Structure formats: structure tokens, C-alpha cells
Amino acid sequence: MAFANPHITASAIEATEFMELTRRYQVTGVPKTIVNETIEIMGALPEEMFVRAALQLPDEPAPPAS
Predict the structure, then answer these.
(1) pLDDT digits (tens, 9 = 90+) for 12-44
(2) Are 19 and 26 in contact (CB under 8 A)?
(3) Structural domain contains residue 30
(4) What are the DSSP calls for 1-66, one per residue?
(5) In a domain, 66, yes or no
(6) What is the pLDDT of residue 5?
(7) Is the peptide bond before 63 cis (omega within 30 degrees of 0)?
(8) Most CB atoms closer than 10 Å: which of 2, 39, 53, 66?
(9) How far apart are CA 42 and CA 26, in angstroms?
(10) Residue 38's pLDDT is what?
(11) Are 12 and 3 in contact (CB under 8 A)?
(12) What whole-number distance in Å separates Cα of residue 32 and Cα of residue 13?
């Protein structure tokens, strides 16, 4: 998202080199994404799911069964 929008900034931190940040954000696995110090996203997600999680949007309902 940061690449596509100049109003978004992002930083990548190497957890093993910055133990203070690892402890502060309770990193137990990677990738772990923190959004505005309040939203935590664990693991790699497809782009659409990541955006929905970052914006705290509800999951899309499943399509109706045929």
C-alpha cells in the first residue's frame, strides 16, 4: 500500500537485529504487520485480505450456494 499511495509510509524491521522492537511489539513470528500502533496482522495474507484487515473491514460474506 505504501508503494501505491504517497500518504502511506512503511518500515521493515529485521526482528533479530532490533530486539527492543521485537519485545515492544511482541513479535513471535514473521511477517507481523502493525498498523497505527493498534492493528496487528500476523502472517502473509493475499492482498485483498490484508487490506481488509488493515482497514478493519469485516470479511466478505460467502457467495450464495447454487
Answers:
(1) 999 999 999 999 999 999 999 999 999 999 999
(2) no
(3) yes
(4) -TTT-TT-------TTT-HHHHHHTT--SSSEEEETTTEEEES---HHHHHHHHTTPPPPPPPPP-
(5) no
(6) 84
(7) no
(8) 53
(9) 11
(10) 93
(11) no
(12) 10
Q: Output the nine-digit C-alpha cell for 15.
A: 526482528
CB 2 within 8 A of CB 23: no
CA terminus-to-terminus distance, the chain: 35
Asked if residue 47 lies in contact with residue 38, where contact means CB atoms within 8 angstroms, the answer is: no
- C-alpha cell of residue 39: 492493528
For the chain, how many structural domains are there in total? 1
CB distance 30 to 15 below 8 Å: yes
64 falls within a domain: no
